[in-house]
Design a protein that fits this description.
574 residues, mainly alpha, Growth Hormone, Chain: A, 3 domains, six-stranded antiparallel sheet, two-stranded antiparallel ribbon, elongated, disordered C terminus, Solute carrier family 22 member 16
Length: 574
């Protein structure tokens, strides 16, 4: 199929493609929203085990009050318990997961040497939460603290498992029923499931619907990359593919804004789920991609679409015939098959993932590329999810974590086409690794510097995350390219599933997540230096051509035209 001719005739990114592109990418904002919404859904405020009876006096260090709500904003478990006196005259020392009754106290003071009885708080007891910052979250609604804290921590990993399943399911279905139908179904389901989450009455139903929401969000993100790629020419494909990620970043920023403005999780979830709902009113007008229609032999529908594109772009309809997009051999076979004088071509041998490891050179390349996919995803979500734990204002931190992606994609696009894919990816990973290491040595009282280094790391890892899709396409031949990108995407999703658990390691040591990401990013950044450069190289068709990438050419072979390299980005974020 002559891809270049289609866009040379109808435009690489004219009015039709621009309208379609920005409309399709608009809904990708919802994917960024749902991927990071759990940051504030599972937010845990300060809390203590509730005492029996009505509280009349509260002591905590130098703070005093007549109710727990007055003192809770200042409570820190590491600084000792909160002492309360009830209307019955009993005194209790309250901690997060236990309460201790003083036996026969002499007076009401913070420290007192008397006998005590301690009882552990569990689901049979109530907890008192600080509502000054977080009025309502799933933690406060369903008491996901103490021995049930692990349930709250499962929220994000379970969502990422849904992302993995959704990418596998919808990616395959899109090749069978078409991109347009999947875009419509997944965008509608994002709205329905997103709103439904807000009306769940228990934890397990909440998790189930969130899992379904993750599947359709991932499905949309998978297919929208393919969709916009098949409507844009190679001259702008680097730009258009990278900036789908920018829409995802807008979603991250909206999570921060809504998290600050709306402190009840149900209202927060409804608002976030409806902010891209206008997309539902015009997504049904989306056309199927010309390449899918031609791959299915629907040449008449393809011709109608080509005429519509030409008319919308101010060109003469009929200037490009669908039959002319077929290669001569394909066109001849199509006519012979239609006339009944030839049989369809035999399907090619199906390749397996083992073919990515066919030689030592290709095996090394596959392992390195898979590692880049993994650390890009792991680092992206560790920096994003962990931004709320850096100190300072958590809402500003998350907003900056999204905003910093815009310059990263702009610089990434420029660097990829100027200095090359490898020379952009490797320094980006090394910079991310250095930023993580420097965060560890920053004194705790210099929060601004820690936030700056974290945003530097997010900036760098976003560059690697944005370019690895295209770089993988160029490193492998046509016969195995989709399998290579699919395998890399699987490693990406493994990283996204591991990321929440990595963030939780901060409970063991504050900087353990940064240490893990920093070491891995630095090592993988060095390994990336051994990958071949693909800038200016044409896409390879055979394993032999792909294996020869990076080897020095003989002078008599001549130079290859850089314009022959058709840049493609056929996959999703995870």
């Amino acid at each position: 199929m002559s891809v270049d001719r289609l866009f040379d005739e109808l435009g690489h990114f004219k009015r039709f493609q621009a309208c379609l592109y920005f409309a399709a990418v608009f809904q990708a904002i919802a994917c960024g929203i749902h991927y990071l919404a759990s940051v504030f859904l599972v937010e845990r405020p300060s809390f203590v085990c509730a005492p029996p009876g009505n509280v009349t006096d509260v002591l905590y260090g130098n703070y005093t009050g007549a109710s727990l709500e007055e003192v809770l904003p200042f409570f820190k478990p590491a600084n000792g318990p909160m002492v309360v006196r009830t209307a019955e005259g009993k005194q209790w020392e309250l901690s997060t997961c236990q309460r201790t009754q003083r036996i026969n106290p002499t007076d009401f003071t913070y420290e007192q040497l008397v006998n005590r009885t301690t009882e552990k708080c569990d689901r049979n007891y109530h907890y008192v939460y600080d509502h000054s910052e977080v009025y309502q979250s799933i933690v406060t609604d369903w008491d996901l603290v103490c021995d049930r804290e692990w349930l709250a921590k499962l929220c994000q990993p379970t969502f990422m498992m849904g992302v993995l399943v959704g990418a596998l399911v919808f990616g395959d279905i899109a090749d069978r029923v078409g991109r347009r139908r999947i875009l419509m179904i997944t965008s509608l389901c994002q709205f329905v499931f997103g709103v439904s989450v807000a009306f769940t009455g228990n934890y397990y139903l909440f998790m189930f619907i969130r899992f379904l929401l993750a599947m359709v969000s991932s499905g949309y993100l998978v297919v929208v990359f393919v969709y916009v790629t098949e409507f844009t020419g190679n001259k702008v494909r680097t730009w258009t593919s990278m900036h789908v990620h920018a829409a995802f970043a807008v979603g991250v920023m909206m999570v921060a804004i809504m998290g600050y403005l709306v402190r009840t999780w149900r209202s927060y979830q409804i608002i976030l789920s409806t902010c891209t709902s206008p997309f539902l009113f015009f997504c049904w007008k989306f056309p199927e991609t010309p390449f899918y229609l031609m791959a299915k032999g629907r040449l008449q529908e393809t011709q109608v679409l080509l005429d519509s594109i030409a008319r919308f772009n101010g060109l003469e309809p009929g200037r490009l015939r669908a039959e002319n997009l077929l290669e001569p051999e394909e066109a001849l076979l199509e006519k012979e098959v239609a006339a009944g004088v030839a049989q369809p071509a035999e399907p090619e041998k199906k390749l397996s993932i083992l073919d990515l490891f066919g030689t030592w050179r290709m095996a090394w390349r596959t392992v390195t590329v898979g590692a880049v996919w993994f650390i890009s995803s792991l680092g992206y979500y560790v920096f994003s999810l962990g931004s709320v734990n850096l100190g300072g204002n958590q809402y500003i931190n998350l907003f900056l974590a999204g905003a910093v992606e815009f310059p990263s994609y702009l610089i990434g696009c420029y660097a990829m086409d100027r200095v090359g894919r490898k020379r952009t990816c490797a320094p980006a990973l090394l910079l991310a690794g250095m930023a993580c290491m420097l965060i560890i040595v920053v004194p705790n009282d210099i929060e601004v510097l820690a936030i700056f280094l974290s945003m530097t790391g997010k900036f760098a890892i976003a560059i690697a995350f944005g370019l690895i899709y295209l770089y993988t396409c160029e490193l492998y031949p046509t016969i195995i390219r989709s399998l290579a990108v699919g395998s890399g995407s699987m490693m990406c999703r493994v990283g996204s599933v591991v990321a929440p658990f990595c963030v939780y390691l901060a409970d063991i040591w504050q900087f353990l997540p940064q240490l893990i990401v920093g070491i891995l990013a630095f090592i993988i950044g060095i390994l990336t230096l051994w990958l071949p450069e693909t800038l200016g190289e044409p896409l390879t068709s055979t394993m032999e051509e792909a294996e020869a990438l990076g080897r020095k050419k003989n002078p008599e072979e001549g130079k290859k035209d850089p314009e022959e390299g058709m840049e493609m980005n056929l996959n999703q974020r995870n």
